[in-house]
Amino acid sequence: MKERKMQRVWLWVALLCAVAAAVSVAGAARQRSYKDRENNYSFEYPVGYRLRTETDFFELSRDRKAVLYGRVSEIFATDENGEQVEYKNTRDEFIKYARQHAKNLCAADGPDESLYCPGVNKESVFEVGEGLTTVELYLNHIYERNGRKTRSVYGPVYVVNLSMAGKPRTLLVEPVTQGGARRSAAPEVQQLMRALVESVRAGAP
User: Fold this and answer.
1) Is the pTM of this model over 0.85?
2) Cα-based torsion angle of the residue sequence 171, 172, 176, 181 in order, rounded to the nearest 10 degrees
3) Distance between CA atoms of residues 170 and 89, nearest Å
4) Which helix (H) or strand (E) holds 186?
5) Counting Cβ atoms within 10 Å, is residue 52 exposed (0-12), middle (13-18) or buried (19+)?
6) Would you say 87 and 75 are in contact if contact means Cβ atoms under 8 Å apart?
7) Whose CA is closest to 172, among 69, 88, 87?
8) Is residue 163 part of a domain?
9) Domain containing 136: what range?
């Protein structure tokens, strides 16, 4: 009797393991891979989204609506006076650069309006791939039109260190926003962005 009970237990365990494996494979099958051989990196994104790429740039959209952008840029370090200096690829130097890079790309001016990010609201640092330092930022955002200022928090903005020997580069991923004032992305877009960034790997064989 005990032997039969044990056999049933093991059958249930085997069944659960098989189901878990099937779910895992199905989840993997729902991902597509993109490889940028020019900048030597890759990432994954879900099936159901459309990826459009240009040199050093990509856009992910769904139902003909863009949800996030990504762009690769060379790293040009500057001092407090704005003069270009040699970039030292250390963790602290990259974090410092990532903050300024995100703020610079946030700024834009028009004839009747301007927007800019004067500071960081929230920040976290982690690694993806095999040791690629990544900075997640939520920026204090100001949209100014006709002398009136609208304040918001914009993000997340991810900055990933893709630097290799002699090639200091960074990947910035940000949400697409509508209208003048930029705001934080919807929760589902934040989850999409985080998963994409965590899938980034150096090397695109």
Assistant:
1) no
2) -160
3) 11
4) none
5) exposed
6) yes
7) 69
8) yes
9) 33-202
- With contact defined as beta carbons under 8 Å apart, do 196 and 166 qualify? no
Q: Read off the tokens for 181.
A: 């004032």
Q: Is residue 96 part of a domain?
A: yes
Contacts of 69 by beta carbon, 8 Å cutoff, 6+ apart: 57, 58, 59, 60, 173, 174, 175, 176
Q: Residue 58 is which amino acid? A: F
Number of domains forming the structure of the chain: 1
Two tokens, residue 91: 């963790």
CA separation for the pair 10, 17 (Å, rounded): 10
Of 124, 138, 56, 131, nearest to 95 by C-alpha is 124
Q: Is 80 left (phi over 0), alpha (psi -120 to 50) or beta?
A: alpha
3-class state of residue 106 by DSSP: helix
Beta bridge partner(s), residue 125 = 135
The two tokens of residue 19 are 């189901």
Locus of tokens 């002699």: 166
Pair 175, 189: CB distance under 8 Å: yes
Residue 46: how many other CB atoms lie within 10 Å:
14
What is the per-residue pLDDT across 98-153, written as a single tens digit (0 to 9) for each? 999 999 998 888 788 898 999 999 999 999 998 999 999 999 999 998 889 999 99
- CB neighbours of residue 102 within 10 Å: 25
Report pLDDT digits (tens) over 31-52: 999 999 999 999 999 999 999 9
d(CA 199, CA 189): 15
> What is the domain-level CATH number for residue 168?
3.40.1000
